[in-house]
């Protein structure tokens, strides 16, 4: 019966004194809320507690409320997939004493529980407050006015059964694919109201300014109702008129019109507060309550799309659990704000409440920051909720959440758990008559398929007339999905005439702190390692891929080459915002060298004038070229939305690798150099170095510098290579030593005879007196390649301390997840993070990195080196990531070539929990096109030891 958005007059009525509270007098027309518990994970109150089984059981102690008792050291941990027969049905007993002022006797006092897992039996002073409540994720209340001792101490007792007596609830909530807990995990409070009061209000505030209200009341002497529309600062909006009122003994129905209002949407979350007062025949105020509302309209147009305020919406959404590692399902408003800000920062506009109604404060935050919401009741596959308990759960969900403008749709459960007998119950309680969907089903006007393969999504002929609206479409197990494949999927979804976007699975890894296992983070194997961010919000690479792919400012890929005009093609992918409302700055940047810790130098910064494009319009913008921009290393473009949040920063190299590295490398003939062949090896010696090469293969065997060995060796090995060596030459001169290896042609092209050397594989080392070591590799051309094209070396992982480099970063890439990086100088320390499973230190150190210009590999024993890459479009392979332990089908375990450090012209894609890369779109294919068979692939490097 309570509204999540009700505004209360919270004055300092009470002071906590131990377990008791002293109250001041309450004004007759006011609603007063007093918390018996804390308000969230960061603010709790200790109650007496007894746990029936498991850790710390069989004795009375105290526990923080709200909390999940497992995280407080009690009972057993359970993941939802646990078999029923193995689950211990723990129960917890809670006891809490509180005082009630004598002057409350003429009031109505209700006790509200925002969430209890799972069955709750509530007693006040030994008497049942009402029926046992069933269902873990739903708010419930009891009128306890007749049970209280006024002006005296009262005792609240709650028995909480972790499992429900209702088997359909157990199946829905406790065999689902998420962590399950026990306890009073959301706040508990008393609400004090006048005897004649407004019980609840349901509001329909349309974008037109039309207002319709159902005001449910106990006020039999009420004779009039007054509405006042205000901004959130309490300033009256003068243009509100009441058009019609109808009265019954328990409900007032009011129609009104507001003019000159600002509508609500995810880009413009304009909110108002509606003050509602009931008056008796003398004009005395019986009760006043305040609701926060937003004016917006929602339409689901059959065969077309989902419209908000008349605009078709492409939902860029994510599924989110209410969860925190150290507190389980007990969260806080601060956490809701942090999560919503990260979701918005990824340029998302929507969130699905998976798979249960969230904390009320999360919906408040979605209202105020601007996120479209699908609100969902908790079910899990078949069998579905039984009708009797399901009807109660639907009522509790809708009645609590009905007035949130962010909620556009209701979801009647998840993945075949739908009880269709409940579909029409939503309309009973929802004055807005929002549509009900069945996630993972073709139902009503929508096809909400889960994890469709790329080609199935495009050609699902059976449901071509339905709105395409996958409520889960890329699964983020470990490092797969989310960003990988998103660009392919999104372009297809964007272009579908009846597409409405979709939702990624899911926001954060559900890694819970195991207080029974020395505090380790547990994702229950591969069940809960699905997040875009880690358990504490650590940002994975996909976070930034999503941010770029879902940028509402869509800039076509651009390369700065000779003849660059400064013009970029752009599309406005907002729904309600003109592009000119955003800002953009350009920076022509010069990067620092390897040996300096100085910052990048901005040569010129300019404001970019964005065109006045309406949503979905295309146009161009121009970057200022009135200065010597060719002297820069890169161009940065940073876009900011009208609320001051960064949309994205795009970076574009200006110099090709060889041009930029020329400024950093000086081949001066300093010192003496000599070479000799000895025992099957080639020794090249300088004043302070000695390099050892194989006289049979030309492979670098050993590097010694200043008497120390640098363990970089065993290369270059040409990958996927079977040709035999035709010749090896050592050509010393006064200023350098050249070692050249030419391979035989075993796969000869038709014109091989006349272009033999051009077509053969070649390795050429050039050593200079100062110790610089050039490497030139030519790998014969082949148009279509599935394996690796490139070269590899060995360097023991145990010796690696970190890496500083110029290239795309700071995150690694896969072939189907190239977006989201920036081209600049980066520095990462070594880590052995297994994405979503262990470490949770991001960026991951090991993997593939794109657009390498130079890299400084830092050794643990002053035995690192620097490599300059002069060849464009070269990937650096840095070591081999440890594969996740529970990747049962190896879909998120990617192939790596032999060796430890490689320089590659192609890299593999990554899959998801449910799909191999090839089914995720064009970028997920393993074949690579390299053009003319006669043109070799060239890799040019310089090593500095």
TrEMBL record:
User: GO molecular-function annotation terms?
Assistant: beta-galactosidase activity; carbohydrate binding
Q: Which InterPro entries match?
A: B-gal_small/dom_5, Bact_Beta-galactosidase, Beta-gal/glucu_dom_sf, Gal_mutarotase_sf_dom, Galactose-bd-like_sf, GH, GH-type_carb-bd, Glyco_hydro_2
Q: Name one Pfam family in it.
A: Glyco_hydro_2
Question: What are the recorded Gene Ontology BP terms?
Answer: lactose catabolic process
* The keyword Calcium is annotated on this UniProt entry: yes
**Cellular-component GO terms for this entry:** beta-galactosidase complex
Domain Beta galactosidase small chain/ residue range list: 686-873
Domain of life (superkingdom) = Bacteria
Provide the Glycoside hydrolase family 2 immunoglobulin-like beta-sandwich domain boundaries.
197-296
Q: What is catalyzed by this enzyme?
A: Hydrolysis of terminal non-reducing beta-D-galactose residues in beta-D-galactosides
Cofactor(s) needed, names only, are: Ca(2+)
Per UniProt, the keywords (alphabetical) are:
Calcium, Glycosidase, Hydrolase
Which Gene3D superfamilies does the protein's record reference? 2.70.98.10, Galactose-binding domain-like, Glycosidases, Immunoglobulins
Q: What is its EC number?
A: 3.2.1.23
Limits of the Glycosyl hydrolases family 2 sugar binding domain = 61-193
Query: Which residues does the UniProt record annotate as the domain Glycoside hydrolase family 2 catalytic?
Result: 298-516
How it assembles, according to the record, is: Monomer.
Report the sequence similarity comment from the record.
Belongs to the glycosyl hydrolase 2 family.
Q: Which PANTHER family match?
A: BETA-GALACTOSIDASE
Name used for this protein in its record: beta-galactosidase
